[in-house]
Amino acid sequence: MISRLLTAAMFVGASFVGASFGVPSASGQRAEPTAHDVMEKNFFATKVASLRVETTMVLISGRGQQRERANSGLVKLQPNGIDSNLVVKFSTPPDIKGTGVLQIEHSDSDDDMWIYLPALRKSRRLVANNKKDSFAGSDFSYGDITLPKVDHYRHTLLRSEKIDDHDCYVVESVPASDAVKANNGYGKKITWVRADNFVESKVEYYDLAGRLLKTQRTGRHQLVEPAKGRWFVMHREMTNHQSGHRTTITASKAEATAIPDDSFTTRYLEKE
Q: Hey, which residues does 171 pair with through a beta bridge?
């Protein structure tokens, strides 16, 4: 994506810690950044060099019934400083133990994604329109588990407001093409991006008919790479307003550590 490639060098290694709400203009007044700038910074704010995480996913029905799933994840930034590799493997409960997902991001083309189901003993490659499918039966889709490519959407800065005592930029994002709309299943998104660290605090997802479909809230933002101002979200909650179902993902550990490249292969994904 052209603008992402052109602006990558500006964001890679840039620290967002203590960023002011707006930047000084020539007149001395605070000038709002563009919506595209906000979403670029949001994209890079969580681009950690390499991270190992342990998380628990809880699926909560409209009646309050809960199902718990534990998984471990590995994330590693590719040499271009833009794309990441991600692998997630579930350890409990027994019926999904060994299930895993591998994603290799590509700036200039569709991401590569595979899912491994132990019962089949073979990885299956996912196509672009699988992004709207449920991730492991949760309220998160495959497309929700990583941030989308910035230039796949047209962004508009709606306003600034507080969420959980944090100043936020409120940005509306509309798919830039019919293909993006079809693959992700959203007519638009509205994101509340914190002004101090550029991590999203809240995201509203609207269906293709323009109705509110889901809301994601985040919390416990952990600074895992202080030198580069890179963060990890320790808690996420996705609520599906149309089904009454919701899912929480809570990390018990997020450790910046060296990860070998062969961890992001189908061979590793299939290893039980």
A: 157, 191
Share of the chain above pLDDT 70, in %: 89
Report whether 112 contacts 125 (CB < 8 A): yes
- Report the C-alpha gap between 42 and 16 in whole angstroms: 10
Coil, strand, or helix at residue 193? strand
Q: Could you tell me which of 49, 50, 36 has the C-alpha nearest to residue 7?
A: 36
Predicted TM-score (pTM) above 0.85: yes
pLDDT of residue 29: 54
Whether the CB-CB separation of 197 and 189 falls below 8 Å is answered with: no
247: which strand partners? 59, 238
pLDDT in tens, 68-113: 999 999 999 999 999 999 999 999 999 999 999 999 999 889 999 9
Q: The CATH number of the domain where 149 resides is what?
A: 2.50.20.10
Structurally, the chain folds into a number of domains equal to 1
Kindly list the distances between the CA atom of residue 209 and the CA atoms of 181, 186, 202, 245, in Å, as whole numbers in the listed order.
12, 9, 21, 20
| CA dist., res. 140 & res. 226, Å (int) | 28
Q: What is the pLDDT of residues 177-195, one digit of tens each?
A: 999 999 999 999 999 999 9
Summarised one tens digit per residue, pLDDT across range 7-39 is 333 333 333 333 334 544 444 556 779 999 999
* Range 158-182 average pLDDT: 96
Q: Which residues contact 4 (CB under 8 A, 6 or more apart)?
A: 40, 43, 82, 107, 149, 150, 151
| Angle subtended at Cα 54 by Cα 140 and Cα 134, rounded to the nearest 5 degrees | 15
Write down the residue that tokens 């914190």 correspond to.
194
Query: Which domain, by its residues, includes 214?
Result: 19-269
Inside any domain, residue 14: no
Tell me if 161 is assigned to some domain: yes
Domain assignment present for 12:
no
In a domain, 4, yes or no: no
